[in-house]
Here is the input.
Amino acid sequence: MNKEAVIIGESYECRKTDFARPIIGEVLRKEDDGCVVNVERFYGLDVDKIDQVEGQVLIKYSEVTGIVTNNRFFS
Here is the structure.
């Protein structure tokens, strides 16, 4: 997904390459190289890769796969 298509405040499914499974997170801010998401759902094996205080992760735009609406994933 490209930077212009990502909307701050919306939740997205993200397939981060170093995570075991996709995560779902709300976009907090957009940066040049990716967006910072507040992780809402993740697989237990990835807990050590998420900021323990803030619950945030930097996601590359290429790792954002689709928007999540009403707890459903649409691509």
Summary: The first strand starts at residue 11 and ends at 14. The chain has no helices and six strands. The chain has a mean pLDDT of 90.
